[in-house]
Design a protein that fits this description.
This protein has about 120 residues and is mainly α. It has a domain of about 80 residues. The chain contains 4 helices and no strands. Helix 2 packs antiparallel against helix 3. The termini are far apart. Helices cover about 65% and strands about 0% of the residues. Keywords: Membrane, Transmembrane, Transmembrane helix.
Amino acid sequence: MIDDSKHIRSGVDGVRDDRGNSDSKMTVRKSRLISGGSNFLIPMFAGVLQITVGMSLVAVSILGLITPLWLSAFFSLIGSVSSMAGVFLVYHALSSKGTFDSLINQAIKRVINAQN
């Protein structure tokens, strides 16, 4: 019979790059690079887009390009709230990334992790 213990695996699992990383690890790294961990890039993009749309809506309503005054005031209100929500979304994305951790918080986290 044929010895199966020396069977060479074929396919994508056996592919390695110059550093010795397998292909599955490379795809995970590439997807994390593209998504940014999806806790940073997507909310950041959405927040910037929301700020831009809100400010442009406020600018259009202030310039008087919307004829009924009540509709212009309503759009200005909606644009302001949208911009504030976008600023909060950007702030939340930045703060959840850990860039605003103080030294004391980092030290406390290191001590707690070292005790575990």
